[in-house]
Amino acid sequence: MFEKAFRVKSNTVIKGSDRRKLKVDISTSFPSLSAEELSDLVPNKEELNVVKIYAHKGDAVTLYVLHKNPVFFELEKRIYPTVYTLWRYPHVLPAFTTWPPVIQKLAGGADLMLPGVVVPSGGLPEVKKGDCCAVKVVGNKAPVAVGTATMTTAEMRSLAMKGRGVSILHSYLDSLWAFGDKSGPPCIPDVDTEGVEGGFLEEEDGQEATEADAEEPYSSSNADDILDSPCPGLQEISLADREEEGEKGIEEADKDPEDPRSPQEQMDALLLQCFLHALKSKVKKSELPLLTSTFLRIHMFSCCPNGKQLDIKKSSYKKLSKFLQSMQQEHRLVKVKELSKGVESIVEVDWKNRELRSFCSPEDPGIEEAPVEVGGGGERPYRPPEITSLYSVSSRLEPLFQDANIRKGTVLQPAEVRTIITDYVKRNELVDDTNKNYVIINPILCDCLLEKSEYQDVEALKWDDLFSRTLDKMQHCHQLVFPGLPPVVRKGPLEPIDITVASRGSNKKVTIIKNLEVYGLDPVAVSVALQHRVQASSALNPVPGSKDRVSVQIQGNQVQQVGKLLLGRQTNQLETLLGGCHGCSLCRHWCFVHHY
Description:
By secondary structure, the chain is of the alpha+beta class.
């Protein structure tokens, strides 16, 4: 879950009532914690922060941070401890044992597979499906990952330790660990796996394992002393990882030398550049008078170079009105008037101004209306799926398809259905001799296609009526084929992208976009793209009744901007987003539902 960087939504100090509720929830979820240990993790008087974040896949997560280290995180109303907590109290969760090289795989988002689990002398921990559990390495009790069991311990044994054992949520070296002080796991000797560790060393290095000096048993009283001595083997992995990140940072610094100007001076220069570019290439004389807010939102923002963000508050002007006043008085480029109370407009532009005429638009491909990558993560341009309407054989129509050896639940394309029905009619000689456009209804066609009220009245059907009735009686399905992935067949009609304009408060409106995931669109990427396009705050909210879907919410009525982002500005709107029209079936399904 935290293999990639997450986005922080808010960071506040916990309230007294919430602190008490958190203590009760933790005590209920982890009864093995004593009252003293619970008070240590959630102290009454020390500052405890509540940090709300969005993971890279859109999951809403709440972090509880103490002394700059996250101690617990809450996902879908369930609390989990972090590795920082488990290093102090490793007895909180049942733990599975694996080998040290597996840590980096877990930090990269992989789950713990049962073939990689080491069975200690005491046997596997007893867990139920969905139980919260930890993962530790051979020879060390300090857990390195937290997740949920995918099956019971008995099922693991019955499957001969094959398949997925633990679904990992958080691990050492992931972004949640990096949110803390980035300390390494301590060395807490694990007596149960000492023999296993010796065997591993002999097998790998050909050396005999030496017995370590007797150490005191671990307890919460000496937890602080043990935490001060990080485990060498795991520390090497952490240091190697940080060295790689450092080398990458040096390379990036070499590519982008620092601008000697202050950030405020850089923003002032960017403002002037976007202002001149907008006047020279975007604004037309017929558009005047032009609202200053519209000029900023529609023209100046679209002229901002790719990779940069226009923010007036970070400039020396702080406000748009002061910037335009400077452009009017010092540069004499525009004339601004207050045509109505509190609303300013640009009423005149000096097109012959020497500064404006000498300005050359920067040759930056990001300045023009570049297609926004709203797919998975923005690593590669979005490619839409190929959509095909399919039909599944229902139990009522099974006798009609029996001659073709097609059972209930078989998914067919419309052309295949047409061919099967045509073969059935010809095989049973049901074509009307007097009029070839009609098909005589036999008992099977009567039971499958006619309503009870039509049994006595309808003796024949036209070919088109026969095909349409057959498709109507079948269950609607659809197939999505994403580039490079196997086809996905789903029951029911294809859901359109739903755009809703809702009211919040007295006179505020928000635009809510749903069902982006159906088309392979990343809600996080769409949210960021809209936020940059309209310069308004956006948020991701879970969709009620759906586990793996989120909706994008952005301030204001942004229906037109959402349409421009997803479809483009060209007349053949589908081709802009889809890279070429894919036929009527795709155009029929790729649609938008607007609610006002």
